[in-house]
Structure formats: structure tokens, C-alpha cells
Structures
1.
Amino acid sequence: MSAAPIHLAGERLMLDPEGGLFWPARRLLAVADLHLEKGSAAAARGALLPPWDTRATLDRLAGLLRRWRPETVVALGDSFHDARGAGRLQPADRARLAAMGRAARFVWVLGNHDPAPPEGLPGEATEALVLGALTFRHIATGAGGGDISGHFHPKASVPTAGTVVSRPCFVFDGARLMLPAIGAYTGGLDVRDPAIAALFPRGGRVFLLGRERLFSFPLAARAAGRRVQAAQAGLPPHM
Amino acid sequence: MTGTLAEPFAGWFARQGWAPRPHQLAVLAAAQAGRSVLLIAPTGGGKTLAGFLPSLLELHAAPRAGLHTLYVSPLKALAADVARNLMRPVCELSLDITIATRSGDTTATERRKQREKPPNILLTTPESLAVLLSQPDASAFFAPIRRIIIDEIHALAGSKRGDQLSLCLARLHGFSPNATNLGLSATVAHPDAIAAYVGPDAARVTTQGGAPPEITMILPAGRLPWSGHMGLSSAPDILARIRAAGLSIVFVNTRAQAELLFQELWKINTETLPIAIHHGSLELSQRLRVEAAMAAGQLRAVVATSSLDLGIDWGGVDQVLQVGAPKGVSRLLQRVGRANHRMDEASRAILVPANRFEVLECEAAIVGVAANALDGDPPGPGGLDVLAQHLLLTACAGPFLPDAMYAEVTGAAPYAGLTRADFDAVLDFVETGGYALQAYDNYRKLFRDSEGRVHIRGERTARQARMNIGTIVEEPLLKVRLARGPLLGEVEEYFVTMLAPGDSFMFAGRLLRFLRLRDTVCEVAEGGEGEPKVPAYAGGRMPLTTNLADRVRAMLADRRTWPAFPEPVREWLNLQQSVSRLPGRDDLLVETFPRGDRWYLVAYCFEGRNAHQTLGLLLTRRMERFGMAPLGFVATDYVLAVWAAREPLDVARLFDEDMLGDDLEAWMAESSMLRRTFRRVAVIAGLIERHHPGAEKTKRQVTVNSDLIYNVLRRHQPDHILLRATRADAAGGLTDLSRIALLLARARGHVRHMVLSRVSPLAVPVLLEIGRESVRNAAGDDALLAAAQGLDEDALVAEASGAAEPPPFRPAAPPAPRRGPRRAHQRQGSLFTRLSTPGRSER
């Protein structure tokens, strides 16, 4: 497993292929859009999806905690799929989250899906967390540097020799960083979508999540008159 | 078995200038004796009338109110057409019989009328029947039914639609135990299985085909192409044949091929002969316009895919052209039968092979048709996903007892072997999701009363279930719309992800320019520049059937059949024999040779493209383990080619049967085919909704990607009923595992490994496919990403050495555009000149 270092507002940050961000100087791990209990939310609407999405997401979070041993964990909002999500946790999952909360200080940044702090779980809740030159928030703002956010579930599609490969990704332009969603049932929004592209008008780079590493591709600037540009790469024909 | 035709029907037949045919009378006799009947007859045999005669006679003898006969057809259009034809005798004889059709298009007013005063004869489709059966009044509506006619039953049995229909038929017989089935089928390879589908003791009436079809072959002028599947270089010959006939159907194998050939024909169509295009992705209104123009005699030709394989009797079709390989004898016969629906006259068909392997296949198909050697696998066991949908819909109509329902379901032929344990597992899945973790008791869709009867949870659950009826699952599709203009049809989402604004592509017979993606609509403008792309569709290609593959292999191995081949083909085969050898009937020829900085391994398996794709994935995995450093592979219907950094040795061991053990398990875990299969299963079973009440706009937000569900389920409950259903589907044809197993068994001890110093003549076509076909790398998507990123290193270096902003990155070449044979010609020289002084040795 190899993490990719980047520099944001003078701080050195590590991008983890599992989708987390680690800030060594502060021993801080940030993760975005866990969407815990999305499965049971779907079940309430009549789609009885496998009920293990919370367990799968916590498995992933546990892996990140083991790897980085953070003092602080910042969940960048939409940690629960809806306001009542925390109340629907299976007892085992709740106990697991509580244990994580004892091992590290949890900061729940509030998101649009979970506008209130989760009931009965350790940690503090906030709209945005400012630490030095960096600001951890759910939705990126148009202005200001040092933003670290989630919300959009960025993913990128790359044409390769075999097929178009589509993966969740980090988006980074030197001034702000957007994290991929790590919830087991979270889908993605293509980085070419205007909602994301508008936040990175001068382009940047995307880092696609892989098994043991990240794959980096340039994200093109928004050229005048062309609404969308892709983070694309291609191979010449084989022969 | 004989029967007689009573008046006034005998007189009506005479006035048409017809005599009742023996099979029509035989069907009548069996039906009047109260038996279910399967009628097997070729097109044009008066099959449909034979199916309705028993009903017409009964309703004439004893007019009555209420539903008497239900007719089910796989096509809405066919049901409507049959209803029109049926009106003729009914009107001309002033029979007191009411007829109605029921489909998704039937208006609410008409539906209400049908419920209040049911017609005597109702014509419908399997899906609309399922809707009717999910209504609370279904039992009263269907109780009086006497006869159920199933048209084109060969197209339904063995498919998921057929599974659903079989369960619906079992329901109907529960409502009306005396009702009988009457199945109408084209000639099939497995009549016993179709008869079992009609009923356990169904009488069988079979007529042999009238005149045998006249099938000829035309080769493109000039050099016989080495590769390519589009057949575009034959366009002038095709146009000449169109000009010489009244109405032609030009059948092709894929929608992409339809688009390309249509363009090619219009490029040279200086007389502007009316030529249209018809395929399943076009907007329905466009398809209907083409069909109407065809029926009105306004067209000279239609370029069509399997969208015209079945369907209403056009009558006036003079000839059928098949461009590209026929792929199977049954399929070719079905298509040939579209020309000339009069049984006693020969249908005329012309085969247009696109390359030299296809010439072999066409010859084999002509011989196969003459021998009436039909192909096709017998229908497998019914899908558990379909059963899940059926149980939920049945509960919508009213409560049921599981014991009685199990008995009813196993009465349907596809489910005769269903175990009680599987039935209970499916029912449990419908009730609560069937998860080991009992998390969803509050959200259960079914509940049981104190007597053990199963009820639907509420009207909302029922409405949701009815909105998701059906077993046809499309890949995720996006609509294509002209900016400020009409809808043109639908393309797969996958294709659109490969387009950048400004890219041009061909669709609906037009050259279009991609503008933007807006929600689920792909907006386009007319015109475009540069090399156009053509939308490809997953699963759009039929694999070569086993039957036809055997014939091709046999012809290759037997020189006595060669005189039938055109000169260039004979020359090609002779050359192959002198530098390597020909694939034998019962062995597996594998050639290895170096070229450039790579080693190639070419295996002549003849098991169809799907099976070769899977075999390629398994084989490269194995070569990786053996240290041969495979780099990629390409599969055609005939051949699999793998290239590697190191020489493949001990080839016999590579093809050992244990390939289907560990390698298969590992492959299954990652296979995108399995993911696609899971998606279909999950949609049919109701785990993933296609429609959600009041949520059309936010559909993308409420649905969870099936891949994500698959990942979670596979990790936490690998024996879940839907995963079992997925594996059963994947093994039963979709991934052609059984064909691979047979191949490996056949190859054991019979691998003929030819170590060559250069490419052999027979290997040229597959090498030309490399770079044109999508090529899978051995190590999966991560390796593909690494390769794509590796190419980007130049840009990174430039960026590091001073360029402040990375330049916009666009692919140097579109990934694998499908092109005609032009490119093949360009490449031909370099490969072919290397053939002259070959070396050979056998290991």
C-alpha cells in the first residue's frame, strides 16, 4: 500500500488508496461521506438491500485507523444517510463505533444528510473545523484556499486499453481538496459534471482509488465555450 | 388424428380458396378431445389460424359471456396483428365473438371496459398477463377461461420471459383446472422440452417444412477480406441485389453494424432507393414508421437486426440478405423464413460473409440448413429471480398458502425440479430480504396470518411491485435527443462515458455530434467531423453455436469438402497446411510464434466468442502464474490469441482441465460478466427497482449501484439466494462455462502444439483483430489504469520541467472504434509478407 503525498496551504498531506486523508503533523485522519445505514434507509422505502453496508464501511474505516493510528478522526459530513440513521445502528456496529471513538477523538462535521450530531456516539459536532490554514467542511465553497471537503462523491472515468475504468477519486488543484465517498453504498458523480468542474475552473489532478495505490491523471481546465472536460487518458492501438 | 371442419367454417375456407390443412384438423381434433397441443410448423403454415380454430368453433357453437381464450405472444405488435387477422372470419361470418388486445399501450378506459365486460378472446404479452394476474380480481376474471394459445413458444421457452409465462400459466390452470394450452412453435432442436412446457401430456402435431429455402452466397469483389465483421465492402453487391428485388430485409448481427452498413449503402445509393434502418435502440415511433412503410410497400429494403427476427407477417418480403456470419442454423432459418410467408414456395436468401472465416461458417450453415440440423440448447431450469417476482405479484392479487403455492409452481415445467428448500429461500427473500442478519423485520414486504397464509404488506408495496413487472433488463441506457428536436433512441451509458463534447458518432442512421449530457439525456446535433464512433451494446453479439462450430471444424478437417469453397479460401487453407497444420475434428491446435518483441499463442477452439473471452481471462491468469508474463488477448468466434513477454512452453499443461478450479473461482470474483448478471437478477427479483412511485426524477439518487450491493453481499453472505441465482445464470450459458469444460475435456491428450517461427495463415485474421477489438489485460482494471497512467509520464515530465498548468489531456486515439475492412487492408501487407519462408516444428 502506498499513499500519495500532496501539499495544501503549506501542509503535507497523505492521500490513502482507501479514500482517507492523513495529516501527519496533526495525526489527523479525514474521511468523507460514510452514509452509514443507507441500506436500512432503502429498506424503509421498500428495497431490502443487504444490511451489511454499515459493517462494510466500518471495516474500511477500521483499516484506515489501523494504518495511521490517528489522534483525531474528522468525518466530513453525511456520516449517516439520514438524521435517524444513528438510531438504526445494529448493536454490534454501534459498539464498534463507540470503541473507535474511545481510541481517537471524533469530529462529526455536519452534512446535508445528517444536519444534527449522531445521538449516543462519542465525539463533537461542528459545521466546519478550522485548523491552521486548513478548513474541513462538508461542501466546498467557491472562495478561499485550504478547503478540504466531501459531499460530491467524485469519481472519474479513464479510457484504457481494455475498457473505460471508473473509480471514486480525490480531486486536487493545489488550493482545495475534495475527498471521495467511502460508504459501501455510495455512488459517484463524474468529475466532469458541472457541479464539480465549477469548483476546479483551472483544472488540477484526480487520484483514482486502486487496490494498493492511487492512479493520478490530469483534470483539464474548463476551456471557454466547452462545458465539460474530462480527466482522460488513452492508449494508442496495440499494433 | 383427423377432424372435420364444421359449417360455416368449411364454407369460409372454401371462399378464401383454401382447404383446411391436415395439421389444422389434427390440432382441432386434439383440442376438441380436451388435450393440450403443441403444433410445430414452419412459417406460412397457417399456424395461427390452427391455434384459434378450436376456440372459434366452440364460441360459434355456444356463444357466451366472459373470457374463453387467452392468446399470448412475445411481441405486442404481433398480438395486435393477429387480432386484426382474427377479425376477418369473425366479421365475415358475423360470429358473436368479442376480441380485445391488452398491452402496456391499452388505455385506462379500455382496461376498465375489459374488466367490466371481459372479451371472449384476449390477446396479450407475458408482461401484461403478469400485470393482470397481480390484480385482486384476477381469479374471477380468469376463472371461465378454456383455452390458452402461446404463439412463438420457441422464442419464449428457455428465456426468463418464458419462465415468467410458465408460472403465470400455472396460475391460470389453478383458476380454471379444465383449461388447455395450445403452443405454436417453429421447428426446434428440442421439441420434447417445448412439449413439456406446453403440458405434461400435450399432444404433438408436426408438419415438415414445405419447399426448402434457396440459399446462395456472394463474395465481395476484389480481395477476400482477412478480418472484419461488418461486410461493408460488399455494399455495392448488396445494393445490386436490393435493386433486383421488390422488398429485401438486410439482416446484420449488431446494431453498430446496422448503422455502418446503412451509411455505406446510402453513400452509393445514387438512385435513392427507399432503404430504411430498424433496430432495438431506435425510438419506438421511428421503428413503427419503418414497419408501416414496409407494410405499405413503400420500401425496397430495411437494414435490420434481430428486432425483425420475430414479428408480424410482412407477406411481401422477396428476399433476405444475411450480412456477416449467420452464427447458427436455427437463427438463419428463422431469418430466412421472414422472406415469403407462403409455405409451399421456397424462401430466397443470400449470405454475405465479411471475411474468410465467415465464408467457412456460411458454407457450414448452408449445409446445416439443407440437413435441417437445428441448434440450440434445451431450456434450463427456471430462474429463481423470476420466481421471486412471481411470488410477490401473486401476493399482490391475494393471500396464498406456501404449501399450495409450491405445488402450483412445480407444476410449471421450468420449475418441476425446484426443491422445497429453494422455494422457501426465495419466499424468505421476498418477505424480508433473506439475510442472515435479521435486520429488516420492520420493513418486511409480506407477512403471515395465524393460518400461515402469506399477505402483501400494503397497497404501497403492491403498487411498487406492479411498477417493476417484467424480466427484460436493459443495460443502463441514456436517451439520445437532437438539441431542441425529437428523441432518436437510446444508447448505453457506457458508450456516452467515452464521448467528449464535439465527438461524432453514428446513430439512427445519422451522423451526430455529441453536445452534452443533461440528466439522463445525451444531447446531440446533426453532423460531425472526424472518425465517427459507433455505439456498441453489451451482449449485442450472438456467439457461434456449438452445432455450427462442429460443422466448421469438420469441414476444415475433411479436404473432400473443400471444393465447395471459393478459390482464395482453398489457397489459404492449403498454405496453412504447408506451414503449420489444420485444426482437427477432435483435437486442439495451438500455435506459438514470436512477432516483434512478443510471443503469441493462438488456440483454435471454435467455441464462440463468449466462451473464448472467458477462456482468455482464465488462460492469462494461469500464464501469469507460470511466469509467461501475458500482456493481453483477443477473442473471435473461432480463435483465441494471447500475447506474452515470454515464450509459452508446456502448452498442454496450460490447457489442463484444472483451469476450471482455482482460476475460475478467482476469476468469478472479479468478473464483470458476473456483475452484469447479478444486476439483471437483482432487478428481476425486485432487489433493485427500475421504477419507484413518484421518484422518476430522483431515480439516480434513490437507487444504489448494483456493483456496490454485489460487493457487500458477496463478502457477507456468499450463499445468498440471489448470488446462487447469479452463478446459475452465469454458468448456464451467459459465460459459456460448459463449452469451455467440454473443450478442455476434448483437448486432454490431444493438444497439438505447433512451434512456428512466424504467424501462420490461419492466425492472420485474429491478429488483425488486435487493437480493433476491446482487449482485456490480464491483471484487471488496476493494470489498465497503470498502463493508462504510464502513458501520461511524458506530460508529467513536461509539467515538472516548467509548464505551470498541465495541458488538457485528450486520448490520442478513440478506444477501439469499430471500423470496416479498410484498416485490415492496410495492415495486411506487413503480416502477409512474413508468411513466405516459414519454419515449423511440432512439440
2.
Amino acid sequence: MIGIALVFLGGVITLFWGLNKSESKSLWILRFFMLLSALLSGAEGQGWVDFSELFKWVPAHMLNFNAFKLSMVSILSFFGFYILSLLPSTYKKGADVLGLFAFALTGAMMMVGSQHLVMLFLGLEVLSIPLFVLAGSEKENIYGNEAAMKYFLMGAFSTAIFLLGAAFTYGGSGTLILSEIQMKLSFAAHFGEFPVLLKAGVILMSVGLLFKVSAVPFHFWSPDVYEGSPNRVATFMAVIVKVAGFVAFAQLINTFSPMQIWINQWIVPVSILTILVGNIAALVQQTVKRTLAYSSISHAGYLLLFLILPMEENLPILGTYLLSYGLGTIILFYLMDKYSADGEKSFEMFKNIKNNKIDMAALVIGTLSIAGVPSTIGFVAKYQLFSAAFSQNHYSVYLALLGSAISIAYYFKPFRYALAETNEVDAEQNSINGLFSQICLITGMLLIITLGLLPMITERIF
Amino acid sequence: MELILIPILASLIWAFLPIKSRWIASGLSLIGLVVLLTKYNQGSFPDGLVVFDQPWLGESVRFTMVIDQITWFMLLLTQLLLPIIVLSVKDQNQKLIAWAFLMQAGLNGVFMAQDGLIFYLFWELAMIPIYFITLQFSEKDNFVTTIRFFIYTFVGSLAMLASLIYLALLSGGSFAYADLLNTQLSHAQSLIIGGGLLLAFAVKIPIFPFHLWQADTYTNAPAQGSMLLSGIMLKMGLYGLIRWYMPLAAESIDFYQPIVMTLAVIGIIYGGIIAIRQDDMKRITAYSSLSHVGLIAAGFFTLNASGFNGGLLQMLVHGLNVVGMFLIIDIIQKNANTRNLSELGGIASKFKFFTVLFFIIVIGTAAAPLTSGFPGEFMLLNSVFKYNSIHGLLSGLTIILCAVYMLRIFQKAALGSNEIAISEISFVDYLPLIIVAFTVLFIGLFPQVILEIFPLSVEKLMLEISNAKGVLS
């Protein structure tokens, strides 16, 4: 709760304070609030502090945060902070863009904490609507306009489908509170037959969420939208939307856990399809940004495998995976943003990275982590997920492993230009980081390596 | 544990501090050897000495490091070869040394790990540096070759990971070696699990149809990359075969034995024949290496003592010899700017001492009696012959084929009237060669010194394998 309050407050203050100032001046305020939210929510998640007295007035059947969700809120705020710290602004005047980032993050946190379908829907909308605007925030860029339009149409459709699903669920169970739906379902499970309305409801709601996390076959919008949006917004979509989307998705599926066997029948094919299509399509992409978009699609596929597990005891796996995915993705998007500044969009942009040791290390560590190579957190996350999923379904894990083998072929493409001695370097390209983003980058790398070598820390976090 | 931390530390020092002296680098890499000889050689550990044991992830994975006689021997191989390799690094490639140290840490971990997931962790950790070495320091754009190499090995590794996860699931969630060993598998399970493990090791060794990454990678890699790959890296696969595949999936050995034996024998002859027709010295060495490790793999799969002992001995010998060959190729290439046999010749008339060393290493690789190649190869052929006389006869051809291509290298490069311009060979270049040539003669004359290192652990290992096999049959 404290996270939502702080980030919202930060957004409002930034809006007023930054009305006539340049973005960089008001950015510090928002970053501060996001970091504070990350720290306080994290501390509350660990049980070191307790703010529940402050927010007694919030009905617990609407919004409620347990320890895991507080950790996720903390991670979301941290990612928000990290994105705003690493990726520079493309928007020169006013702080309205920053306010939209803050409000979208608030929506993501509401999705994480929702206990009620209306709240979940509200979170989804509060997250999406600022993003529709943000996608088109470069007004002169026609690709940005296309992206905004596409994202808006797709988002509106998927929300409508989600809403229809929620209505069906209400028709089938007579309630919108998640825990009560679960109770009704357990009763129905005794009779061995689930109401058709509930089945339709969960399918339609899942489709709505699958749109949001860009799972195959609902993924077509995402590479186009990522490519058109400013890099910072694309990163925000790839990370924040997916993290919040999957926590909410896991909770939704957990609500319908009495019909888990039936749900697995369609989750597993969707997951495998997402992994394979994402990875194979990424192989043939020409630009780095589209490759990253397909990479994030394939990660959505791995994460869908999580939904077939019994939820409660496996939540740490979800947390670790989302953490590793977010860290790796933000670092790679940062590098892509930095080295595509001169207009080069293909992998050749990385040939200038040789001038900068820290960026080079970040490229190596970020790539290894997101590809799931051991000694990084990416491996720990993938290992935990796969070994848990293996006890449920052997074949999906074999195919997921095949998918990660394919992914090596495109994740390692930058090294061709970044490392090989034979490529000449553009000496004029000066690439000096600001001190602050340098510190952020090193922090991220250290997190990836430390959590990869000492995974017992993540067990303690979640 | 020092054997892992010291190399990592050395690697960090080398990567971030501006020191540029290969003597210091070799000194740093010698620390490992010193630690190994002083700290862990006070007695032999046939049952294994637990060096380190801490929980790593939940209750299922423990960070366990154990040294027994076979492990000690593999560690010896690594620590012995690394200073030689580091000493030969060219001055402009100093950053390569940092990767080499990281690789040393990975290799030491692979050999000591006694937990499935930790083994996998170090297995991959050893692979990352070699990927970057081959990519970064090669002479031309090497991306396609290296990515092929990495994907080949990564697919194998993932198959191994799947097998280990499956095995751990059956053992009740624990990855500890002892638990995995005591898990009983049905026939179908053992085929799946054994197949995954075998794929990983067969790609790494490489056994015949999985060798396609090898020749190009060796040829395009910098000399030190080829040395690390063929000298030490391949031994990971062979070690995995006897330490991880055979005891853990023993139920599947009966099924895979004839397949692997046949493939290995095909590889022996195939590698030898192709080597004869090559012009590039590095390619010849690559294919000769395919042929030699094929024989070692075949020897292990015969499951008799002579095969195991001979195979282990041959691992060390092949490591030293192949590193020696790559050293020679590197020196020749540095001076003559080519390594094609058709353009070389006449080294003998100018550099007598170099030619003597060259010849010693050549006959050592060709396994002439009284050189290091002979005892191991003899034991291996003996064991393969015991398994099946046709396999034995065919793999015996390796001695003839090897003599043909090795003497061809010597004849075309060292003899002949072709005058090539070799300016000078410095002492730094000579030193590693002298060490290798010395071991060729020493092991050739006293193979018993090496063979006495590991007999008890080999016996124990073979007992474990036959026990595990006996459960089912």
C-alpha cells in the first residue's frame, strides 16, 4: 500500500513542480519517490516495518498485500526507478510524461495487490491508459503514432474481452471477490462439474491478460509497438507490464485452481507455442529492438509454464524469474538505446561498445543472464522454473530447453560486433556514461552475478 | 576451494589491472599447481576428501567439492597445462589470460563437483571463457564458427541439465552425487537420462557424428584457444563419461555400449584418414585429436580396468602432446606467417634444437614405443581388443594412420629444401616446448609413475558402475 501511495504522490508532485521546468529537473523527485517506495515496500515485505495501521481504511477484499506481493511491489518500484535512471529522456519539455510513468506504475501495483476482479480491471486500465499516451509521446515520429494507435486498439479490445470474462465469471459464481470465487469453485469441484459460464469466464479473462503479456497467438502487436515507441516506453512495456501482468495472472489462475487440470490443457500449448514462436521469430529479425521484443515474447512463454504449477509454495520461483527477466531486459534495452543514438538499428551498432569497458561488461553479463547461462541469476531462475515444471509435465520442459538453445543464436549476435578484434572501431564515437547511470549499471551487474552465485539470497527475499 | 577462488581472483586482477607480463601470469597460474601438490597430496584419497560443503539452493542443491584420486589427477592435468599455455600467449593478446584463469576456475570446479547442479554450473562456466577467447582473439571474423560451437555444446549441456533434473526428481529432489547414484531407474528412464548425459559428453569429446564444430573451431581459434579446447576442455567430456554418465545411468550402458563403441571406432579411422589429406597443420592436429579421444572414449566404454587406466593416462598424455603440437604450430606460424604444409619446409637446417623438440613431440603423438603415447595407447587398444576383436583391429589402424600424418607434418615442415624465413625463436617460446618434450620422454620411460596415481579410485568407480548395473540385470 505504501508503495502505491508514494509513487502516486511522486507522480502528482512531479506534475505540479515540473509544469514549466525541463524534465531532468523534476526527474530526481520521481526517482526519489520510486526508490523510497522500493525500499519501504521491501522492508515491509521482510517484516522489518509495518504500515498496515496507516492503510486500515482500504477494504482488504479489494486490495491486500501479503509478503510476496510487497516484494513484488518493491521490485516494480525498483524497476521503475531503474528504467528512469538508465534510459534518458527523448521528451524535452515539461514533466507530464513523468507523471504518466508514475501513474502507470501505480496501476501495475494495483494489479499486483488486487483481491477483487474490479480492482484487477481498474489496475489494468490505470496501467494501460498512460501507456497508450506514452507510446505516442514522440509526436513527430510517425512510427510512434502508429504504435500508439495499434497499442490503443489492441489494448482496448483485450480489456473489453477481459471485462466480458469478468462478467461471465460473475454470472457463474455470483461474486467478484477472488477468494469467494475460489470457494464456490471448490464446492463445484465436489460435484465434478464446473459451470460453463465460469469456464468461459476464465478463458476470456486469460485471453485479456495474454494480450497484455504478449503471448502467442496474441503477440503480433508487440514488436511493432515496441519499435515505434520511444525506447524508454518500450522498456517500461516490456518489463513493468509483464511483471505486473504475470503476478496478476498467477493470482487469477490460482483463484481457478480447482479446475487446474482443465486449465493446463490450454496453458501448456500456449506456453510452448509462445516459447518456440518467440525464439524462432527472433532469429530472423534485423533490428535489435525487434529482436528484444521477440525475446520478451519468448520469456512470456517460459513464465506461462509457471502457471501450471501449484501456486502457493512456488511463488518464489515467479519472483526470481521476474527479477532476473527485468534486470537483464532493462540492461539490454539501455545498451540498445545508447548505441542506436546515431540511427544505426541493426546489430552493427554494438561495434562502438569497445570504447567503453563498463558497457561491454554489461552487455556480456546482461546477455548471459537473459540467455540463462550459469553463474547469473537468469540461470537460477530458469533452473528453478524448469525443474518445478518438470515434475508436472516433461515434454513442455524439453521443448522449453530447446527454445533456450535456439535463443543463444540471437542473444549472442551482438558479440560478433562487440568483441571481434577484426572490426574497426568508430573512434570519434565518444561514449562516456554519466556517473549516476554508471553506478546504476554496475549495481545491476553486481545483482545479476551475486544472486546467480548465491541464490539463497533470493530464497530469503521471497 | 582455493583452487576455484585463486583463479577467479587472478582473472579479476588480470582483467582490471594493467599488468602485462606473461611471467607474472604463469607465476599466478602456478599457484594452483603448488596448492594442489602441497595441500592435497599429503595422502591419497581413494574415497574422496570433502574439501567444501555448504547448502546452495534450498534443500536440493549443496555446493559440495570432493577430491579423490581421479579428480586429483584431472586437477593435475589442468594446473600443469595452464602455465604452459599462459606462457605462450602473445603480447598483444594479454586479455586472453584473464579468460584463461576464469576457465581454470571452471575446470577445477567441474572436476571437483559432487553435486549434479554444481557440476552443470561449472561445466557452463568453463565454456563461456573459451567462447569469448575463440571469438575475440581469432584472426578473422569468426562469429559463425564460434556460435556453432557454442550452440552445439549448449544443446548438449541442456540435454544434460534435463537429465539431471529428471534424475533428481526420481531421487526425491536431491542433486547430491550419492543420492543420484543410489536412484534406481527403469529401463526407459535410464535410456532418456543416459541419452541426455551421453549427448552432452559426446559433443564435448567429440564422438564421431557430433564433431562437426571441432575442426573449424580449432582452426580459427587463436593458438591458446585451441590448446585450452583440446588440451583440457575435451577431458571434461571424458571425465564426465566415467564420473557422471557411467555410474548414474549404468542401467543404460548395455544399450549404448555397442553404439558408442562403433561410433568411436568410426571416429578413430575417419579422423585419421581426413588428417592425412589436410594441408593446414591446425586442421591435421584437430582431426588427429578427434581420432585420439575417440580411442579414449572407446577404452572407457569397454568397462575394463585396462581401458580405464589407459584412458586416464592417455588423457594426460594427449593433453600434453596436443598442446605441444599447437605450440609448435604457433611458433612456425608466427615466423613463417603460414601453417600450410605446402608452403613450409627447411626448418631443420636452421633450427636444430627446435627440430629435435618438434620430432620428440611428433613421435610422442604417433605413440612410438618409449614415448608417452605408447603405454596408454597400448592399454586402450588392448582393452578394445578384449571387447571385440573387430573393433580392436580397426582401431589398431590408428597407429599406422597417426604415424603417416604425423611424420608427414614433420617431413613437410621440418625437412625439405624449401627455405622459409624464420627469424628467431626466443627462450620464452622454447621453455614450454622443453617442458612438453621432457614429459613425452619421461612418461614414455616411466608410465608407472602416472599409473600409480589413481588405481584405488578407479577400482572404486568400477565397483560403483558394476553395482549400479547389477541392480537391474
